[in-house]
Amino acid sequence: MRRAFTLLEVVVVSVILAILAVSVVPAFDTVESARRTAAVDEIARLMRVIRAHTMATGDAAGITIDGDTLTPLRIDDTGTATEPIPGPLGENRPALDIAARFPGVEITEITLGDGSTTDGTIWFGYDGTPRLRDANLNDTGPATEDTVIVVTGGERVRFRRLSGSIITEDAP
Q1: Measuring CA to CA, which residue among 47, 76, 81 is closest to residue 62?
Q2: What is the CATH number of the domain that holds 69?
Q3: Nearest to 36 by CA among 142, 164, 170, 139
Q4: Domain range spanning residue 99?
Q5: How many domains does the structure of the chain reveal?
Q6: Can you give the pLDDT at residue 51?
Q7: Structure confidence at residue 2 (pLDDT)
Q8: Residue 78: inside a domain, yes or no?
Q9: What CA–CA distances, in Å, run from 1 to 5, 6, 8?
Q10: Run means of pLDDT, 10 residues per run, the chain, 172 residues
Q11: Is residue 1 part of a domain?
């Protein structure tokens, strides 16, 4: 009765495991890359939806960025407070939590239209271009810089200050 493996059997199994390990590691990188790309695409989609809402309704609307959460909002009828933007069926549009929806991905850098690099709100004009607003929600003019949101790995969404176009960019 045989109770041990031969040296040849151990070597063959080791080679097979090494080949499997080498082929699996790139697959993990591909999954992480796909998550980052999906997160950037989802941020750009949300920005396009709110931009289209603003252009269609004339509402003063935007997206508040707080950490890894993007929340669509609009200025209410009184012009002094914000409220959620209704979706197509009347329900409030939900916030997008990047870290919860795309594990391993987070917002690493933000540059808003006024050049600030902290959490804040991206405002859209009725013509789809980025606008600036003060603390009292008054429109103070067009954005002076492109708005850029960067996620883990360096992929980014750029909201062009002059044209209002929203584009995704690969990591530099």
Answers
A1: 47
A2: 3.55.40.10
A3: 170
A4: 7-169
A5: 1
A6: 94
A7: 65
A8: yes
A9: 12, 14, 18
A10: 80 90 72 91 96 91 94 88 88 93 95 93 92 91 95 95 93 82
A11: no
